[in-house]
Amino acid sequence: MALRTRSELYRRALELIPGGVNSPVRAMRAVGLDEPFFVERGEGAYLYDVEGNRYLDWVLSWGPLIFGHADPETIEAVREAAQRGTTFGVTTEAEVELAAEVADAVPSIEKVRLVSSGTEAAMSALRLARGYTKRDRILKFAGCYHGHADALLASAGSGLATLAIPSTPGVPSAVTADTIVCRYNDVDAVAEAVMRYGEGLAAIIVEPVAGNMGVVPPADGFLEVLRKLCDASGALLIFDEVITGFRIARGGAQERFGITPDLTVLGKIVGGGLPLAAFGGRAEVMDQLAPIGPVYQAGTLSGNPLATAAGLSVLRRLRDEAVYDELERKGARLEAGLSQLGRVQRVGAMLTLFMTDRVVSNFDDAQACDTERYAAQFRHLLERGIYVAPSQFEAMFVSLAHTDEDIDRTVEAAGELGRDG
Ligand code: KE4
Fold this sequence. Notes:
By secondary structure, the chain is α/β, with parallel strands linked by helices. It is built from 15 helices and 14 strands. It folds into two domains: 6-70 and 320-417, Aspartate Aminotransferase, domain 1, CATH 3.90.1150.10; 72-317, 3-Layer(aba) Sandwich (Aspartate Aminotransferase, domain 2), CATH 3.40.640.10. It has helices at 6-16, 72-82, 93-105, 118-133, 158-163, 173-176, 187-197, 222-233, 252-257, 283-286, 305-317, 322-338, 363-367, 371-383, 404-415, and strands at 39-43, 46-49, 54-57, 111-115, 137-141, 179-182, 201-206, 236-240, 263-266, 277-281, 343-347, 350-354, 386-387, 396-397. Ligand KE4 binds at residues 23, 25, 62, 117-119, 122, 145-147, 158-159, 207, 211-212, 240, 242-243, 267, 277, 394. Ligand KE4 binds next to helix 4 and helix 5.
């Protein structure tokens, strides 16, 4: 007999999958749910669970779905590709076309390597930076999350921050011994760190707009200082644009803020909702990668034909500038409505309602927010069929499928709780 209620499904899931989920944040523990809902399907801006409930979705699978769930053009592109085969392990034309789309859109990218997840892309970009510079040290920022590669799991944001897990067991201290962690937006701290470690510094990796401590924009001059410090020390500047890429502008944060990194990490939107991510940069750096260079990196399903079909279907439509005007307009409408309830921080079509009256400039500020009040708002909205990020340390994502009515209904429902929750 088919399992139909979330309780039955979750009980079975717990028997087979750690925590019943394939990614920790999906357990929705940080917002006080005993069990997560189980999705049966998505359509446009909506999710439908196995019990027949409908939810207006502001998470959109954590960012990829700029055209919403089950976007017809994406589905048709994947269907058509699937009928010709699902994977070949040999290069296809679509990989070259997707590489061309990415290089055309992202200012810093001359060459790009496709992989299967943001973690893999960030991990590979770091290895490339270390191989290119022949240095070992890397510098990241507390509250920024770059996937779960060992060297980067030091004061990570996202799932770790939400679950308050200290720096992860299972990562040898030797591996993070070369990872320096600074406070986001703290230019003095970064300058001091580069002064001290500059000789051995391979890279500074940063979310140019942080999305994994909630949305924290770069302070004026922050990204420029990182660029200058990298130029002065010979380290590479890596922009992790897994969230911001194709979201806050077609060319991501580097287009919006006019700062050119040496390497860029992409994910989410670039794969159109399928498992595809990428990293790219100047040819001189990227050509250090095997098979033409000595830095090894590989992947059975890299550039998978279904994923490249989905990515191409989405990226080609993002050439239309009207898309970003519409995302900006909708983001601003949602921000204006929610700002009565707390501190809203937004860049383009990504935003967070922080339960505080103060500016949130770094992870310490984010952690000082009233996460209990956030959890109460999450549950209040979920009861009304509105699904926002199940964590204060994540973002709301606006898509082209969201309507003004969706926005206004969300603002009205959230307003019922008021500022005091
Ligand atoms: P994935 O390995 O999850 O595809 O990408 C890792 C990653 C890298 N860089 C940034 C800036 C990211 O935000 C992410 C992943 N984002 C989280 C949520 N913020 C994914 C959700 C999850 O872990 O389930």
